[in-house]
Amino acid sequence: MSFSDSDSIPSILEPDRSSVKPPILEVRGLRKTYISADQELTVLHDIDFALPSGDTCAIIGPSGSGKTTLLGLCAGLDDASAGSVLLDGQPLESLDQDERAALRNRLVGFVFQNFQLIPTLTAIENVLIPLELRGETGRGKDAAEILAQVGLSKRLHHYPLQLSGGEQQRVALARAFIHRPKILFADEPTGNLDAETSEPIVEMLFRLNREAGTALVLVTHDPGLAARAGRVIKMKAGTILSEN
Amino acid sequence: MSANSVSKPLPKRILPALFHPWTWRMAWRDSRSQRARLIIFASAIVAGIASLVAIHSLRGSMQTGIETQAKSLLGSDLMLSSRQPISENDATTVSSLATQSSREISFSSMLYFPTADAARLVQVRGVEAGYPFYGKVETTPPGAWNRLQSESGILLEAALLDQFGAKVGDRVKLGSLELPILGVIDQPAPRTGRFGAFSPEACIRFADLDRTGLLETASLSSHYLHLKLPPQTNAELLKKSFRERFSEKPWRFETPEDRRENLGDALDNLQQFLGIIALASLVLGAIGVAGAVHSHVSRRLSTVAILRCLGASGPLAFAVYLVQVIALGICGAALGALIGIAMQTGLLALFRDRFPFEIAIAPEWWIVAQTTAAGLAVCCGFALLPLLKIRDISPAMTLRGGATLGGISKSFRAWIVYSLLTGLLVLLALLNDSDWKRSLVLVGGLIFAFGLLLGVARALVFTTRKIVKPSWPYLLRQGISNLHRPQNQTLLFLLSLGLGTFLLVTILLSGNLLNQRLSLGQFSESPNIYLIDVQPDQLDGVTRLLKEQNLPALESAPMITMRIESVRGIPVREYEKQNGVPRWIARREFRSTYRDFLNPTETLVAGEWKMPKATPGEPVSLSLEEEIANDLDIRIGDEITLDVQGISLPAKVSSIRKVDWSRFNLNFFMVFAPGVLEYAPGFHVVTSRLPEGTSSGDLQRELVKQFPNVSAIDLTLILETVREILEQISAVVSVLAGFTVLAGIPILIGTLLNGRDLRTRESVLLRTLGASSKQVRTILLIEYATLGCLSALTGLILASAANAGLAIFVFKASPWPDPVLLTAAFIITTGLSILGGLLLSRGVSNHPPLSILRSGV
């Protein structure tokens, strides 16, 4: 794979030396309850943990254990029923939806199991979206550069439907890192890929994490992938079973 | 960050976001893979605006045509009439505001036919060149009316020539002047009264009047000044100002509006119908657009969720799609306007010969601009309803997927939009019909229909959830269960198709109501000849004569002339000043009758129809016509004293009647109880009907022989004019009602687009799992047939209720809807729904499942 040929750290991914080092993510007494057919269903019970800046953490557990729900709450994609999530010291519950969106744009990168590329945008346009939402223009060169880093220099103007699953996920990775997020949430990043395609993606995820100093929160079923994280949170039935 | 990068935060509020280049860029990019779909969405706007523009432009063209035709009943914009000569000075003053004026003097005189050595009382009309300004005088040979302006001569009615065996070219003698007969009047210049003179017409040159030497001797001449006003002049306002300015003059002013009584309520009813049709076509287009936008936004859910996840604010994401709607709306509206213009001019060109009035084949630009703007505003307003839901799309959808756009939004913002849309609709209804009560009722009816359809949809979801049993055959169970399962299309389908059916059928039914009201068929029963001055002892003889001529004696009524002496004890001259009653009304000569029954053309609007035989010393019961009662400011119970040829007759108003003057039956402003007027000097009027295309010559000849005092007034010509106008109103109604069906196209497109993606995906999954095309078709057939059937049924029930309301309160016609129309509407609506389902299944069967699954539908 061509993207692994790169030896040097791309300038746009250099860690921000000026950043402070308090925990980038703090979760306190987090609970999520759904009301369905007049019944309460609690999918997360009083979750507490914290993640220092630049660290990596994998959340594992069986289906229905609340991993993705936890990830969504940590990223401010959903509202908690109780408890608090602090992202870079900012309590998410005190922010409205638009303020959370602005915070995500500033601090967070995402990689999804089903890639979540915008089908009507080309690869380079998809990568540029987080920057454009900040109002930054003239960053096409940076986007092309990071796409080249992930081995897609010849696929800049292809639409998602014209790319393979692995290529789509690499575009998603480039998009996740283009705006130098402080934390990256990855939901089953290799869940839709075979082992051969997965490996370079995982390599790149961790390399970018190291080189850019971005904290990484991974939700996965894959014990091998989880083992590469600095810390593993094991969940079951909405609670943290163990933390290694 | 690169050296050449520029950072300027994107706006967070909706208004700045709308004008930010990124919003437009993103809207453009987002449209890339959706172009075909957006074209379908735009086609909803195109069809909506095209039908709107065409309907309103046609309405404008035809209304102009009809109004011009209605003017032909008077022949001018304003007519001044007087029993006394109008001085040169006065004529110049009054004419100064007109672009053209024409004088006329009319009086009764004997006309001598040397060939028959006989004379006949005729109504002489000396008309100055130019008149009539509207409508035309038709003669045999053609052009005789124009010749009359340049040379001496006379034009006579065909019946008169028949009666005396005279022909064109013969000479007749009028006073001291001998004149050649230049031609026969087939269609006369508008008459100044219905049967003001009980004799046939004879037209001569205005310049020849003096030479007859009759003006000095004719004691009862009438003087007229016909005015043609500049196009933008309001004749009604001018009439009012003339009345005030010349209040001391015994003048009467008339406008075409005053002649509308001849058309009954036809024009008013047409206005009301056009108001309904205009509003309904607007709402039809808007519902279609809302459906199409809902469908479009439903497909963009994941994109919106990703944008939100990556940091786009709610207003920014909303702005991207609003920009798409506005841009497409403007393009669609422009194209729709062009198509609408083409349709209007095309239709006019096609049907031009069928309209009995001059109609210009040109776009009504002001109406086009106004309608396009209104259509665009309403369409974009309705599109806001689905667009608003973009703000509610959660970024968490990126993790879970499967979310759908909700049904009816209940957020605070949505309520603001609902209120704005209601206000906009009321405003547009008011623009179409100035009666605010009727406008509110129309919009209220729409809201009620919306609410009812909502209720029916919820009831359907609830019922199907309860009734479906596992024991049912799979295909039936699947088809019915689709109606209540998550992401069902029941609510939106019923709302759009049900409302569409309701509006379209209401328009078609109202068209029927109006045509029923015009009831042209009744014209074949209307009298077209009046026999005047029949003495009581001649009544049987005249009836027998009619029978011998194979003509029916339709009606017979005694007629007594009288004037008002006092009202509520106040002498009429004083009353006229006190109450501001126009002089010509208060002091006119009333031709009244007595009877104890109501005619079919009369409706009681106040009081009771009590006509007991008068008892000596008590005021006699009197029934007044509605308009004259209003003009005289007289109410039930008021006493009026009438001067019946020198004898005072006290009367008490016991009832007020509305009279349909368009039927030409024997109707009177004043109807008295029997028992008093039988002995007053008067005569009878007998009406009959000549078969179409025949002349009254034979009858007139026999009348002269047997009853020389009896005059026959042939009303065929004026009756034909009125009939033509009513016919064209009926044609307009039929064309416009049929045309509005086009406005239903966007509804159909919008409805079928909604839910298409989900059903396609489900069907493809079923196909993947081994379902045959037939099985997929059956499931879709059951779902779409149920939805179509229920939408049609609810729409038709609502339309029938609306029809009953309109029939009773507006058109005064039978409230029962046409069962054939209802059945046809039911079959067509359900059929179209089923066809939509089948087309969907065909699309699924014709494509490999993988290509559809991969396309991300």
At a glance:
Chain A has helices at 67-74, 97-107, 123-133, 140-149, 165-177, 195-212, 223-227; strands spanning 23-36, 39-52, 56-60, 82-87, 90-91, 108-111, 136-137, 183-187, 215-219, 231-236, 239-243. With 244 residues, chain A is of the alpha/beta class.
Overview of the structural elements:
- The complex is a heterodimer of chains A (244) and B (857).
- With 244 residues, chain A is α/β, with parallel strands linked by helices.
- Chain A has a single domain (2-16, 53-74, 98-243), classed as Rossmann fold (3-Layer(aba) Sandwich), CATH 3.40.50.300.
- Chain A has seven helices and eleven strands.
- Chain A has helices at residues 67-74, 97-107, 123-133, 140-149, 165-177, 195-212, 223-227, and strands spanning 23-36, 39-52, 56-60, 82-87, 90-91, 108-111, 136-137, 183-187, 215-219, 231-236, 239-243.
- Chain A is globular and about 50 Å long.
- The model of chain A is unreliable at 1-20 (pLDDT under 50).
- With 857 residues, chain B is α+β, with helices and mostly antiparallel strands.
- Chain B has three domains: 14-66 and 266-520 and 725-854, no CATH class; 78-254, no CATH class; 553-688, no CATH class.
- A six-stranded mixed beta barrel of chain B has the order 3-4-9-6-8-7. In chain B, strands 13-15-20-17-19-18 form a six-stranded mixed β-barrel.
- In chain B, a hairpin with a 2-residue loop joins strand 13 (553-567) and strand 14 (570-571).
- The mean pLDDT of chain B is 81.
- Strand 7 (136-137) of chain A pairs antiparallel with strand 1 of chain B, so a sheet runs across the interface.
